[in-house]
From TrEMBL:
<dbReference type="Pfam" id="PF02368">
    <property type="entry name" value="Big_2"/>
</dbReference>
<feature type="domain" description="BIG2">
    <location>
        <begin position="158"/>
        <end position="239"/>
    </location>
</feature>
<dbReference type="InterPro" id="IPR008964">
    <property type="entry name" value="Invasin/intimin_cell_adhesion"/>
</dbReference>
<feature type="domain" description="BIG2">
    <location>
        <begin position="69"/>
        <end position="150"/>
    </location>
</feature>
<protein>
    <recommendedName>
        <fullName>BIG2 domain-containing protein</fullName>
    </recommendedName>
</protein>
<dbReference type="InterPro" id="IPR003343">
    <property type="entry name" value="Big_2"/>
</dbReference>
Length: 243
C-alpha cells in the first residue's frame, strides 16, 4: 500500500515510509512498515496509517477460498529427485487468474503423512527420500488439498519412437546392407535395439532381412522393410537396381 500527505500549499508527497502502519487484527492480516499487507486468516480488519498526528485506514475482508488445488495432485519420483508443484486458491464461480484465482504456494501450511518418504519446501519443491508412498497436504484458510506422492526405485519409462540408420536403401541385386534400429525412451536415453526388432517385408522376392539383421537385395524392384519394436513400427524403403 502507498500513503500520501497533502500539505496546505496543495503539495502532495508520498509518505508511506515515514509514518507508522498498523493492523487492527493480526489474525486476519499483518502489515509491515513498508506498507506490505500479508493475509493471515479469514475475517475483517483495518489497516491503519499514522503520520503527523493524522490517521487513515483501509478495510480488509478475507474470505475462505471456494477451492484449493494443486497443479500436480499425483507425483512420482525417484529418491533424491525433485519436482516443483504449485497450489492455487479459487474464490468465486468463474476462474480468472489474478481476479479470483491466485497462486498461494508460499502461503499454505504443509503437513506430511510420512516425512521419511518425501518432504516439500515452503515454495512447493518436493524431494523424494525413500521408496514408498506418502501424502502431502496444503491448507489455506481452513481449506485443504492433498498431493499423493510415490517414490519409486526407478521411474518407469516407455519408448517414444524408433529410427533406422540408414533410413532408406538403394542398391543393386545381390548386395547387402547393415541396418541399425535405435529407440528413444521417455527419459531421453537412446539405445540400439536392432536385435530386438521384429522384421517383415512387403516384397520378399525383392528384398528381405537375414537373421543377422542385414537387408539383402534379391531382384530388381521396390520393397518396404518394416521394423517393429514395442508396438512402434517404422518403414525402410528399398530400391533394388539391376546389376
Amino acid at each position: 500500500m502507498n500513503a500520501y500527505a497533502e500539505y496546505t500549499d496543495h503539495n502532495i508527497t508520498q509518505v508511506d515510509l515515514e509514518g507508522k502502519w498498523e493492523s487492527s487484527d493480526e489474525s486476519v492480516a499483518t502489515v509491515d512498515q513498508n506498507g506490505v499487507v500479508t493475509w493471515v486468516g479469514p475475517g475483517q480488519a483495518y489497516i491503519y496509517f499514522n503520520y503527523g498526528g493524522l490517521k487513515d485506514s483501509v478495510w480488509i475482508r478475507n474470505v475462505k477460498p471456494n477451492l484449493l488445488f494443486s497443479n500436480s495432485p499425483n507425483v512420482m519420483l525417484e529418491p533424491n529427485k525433485s519436482k516443483d508443484v504449485a497450489i492455487y486458491a479459487f474464490f468465486g464461480f468463474v476462474p480468472r487468474i489474478g481476479v479470483n484465482l491466485f497462486e498461494v504456494t508460499n502461503q499454505v501450511k504443509w503437513t506430511f503423512s510420512d516425512e521419511s518418504v518425501a518432504t516439500i519446501s515452503a515454495d512447493g519443491h518436493i524431494i523424494g527420500h525413500a521408496v514408498g508412498k506418502t501424502t502431502i497436504t496444503a491448507t489455506f484458510y481452513g481449506v485443504s488439498t492433498t498431493i499423493n506422492v510415490e517414490v519409486v526405485e526407478k521411474y518407469p519409462t516407455f519408448t517414444l519412437g524408433i529410427s533406422s540408420s540408414p533410413g532408406y536403401i538403394v542398391n543393386s541385386i545381390g548386395s547387402t546392407n547393415e541396418v541399425a534400429i535405435h529407440a528413444m525412451s521417455s527419459d531421453g536415453t537412446i539405445k540400439e535395439v536392432t536385435a530386438e526388432v521384429t522384421w517383415s517385408t512387403s516384397s520378399p522376392e525383392v528384398a528381405e532381412v537375414t537373421a543377422d539383421h542385414r537387408i539383402v537385395a534379391k531382384s530388381e524392384g521396390a520393397a518396404v522393410i518394416f521394423a517393429e519394436y514395442e508396438g512402434i513400427k517404422i518403414i525402410i524403403p528399398v530400391i533394388v537396381k539391376p546389376n
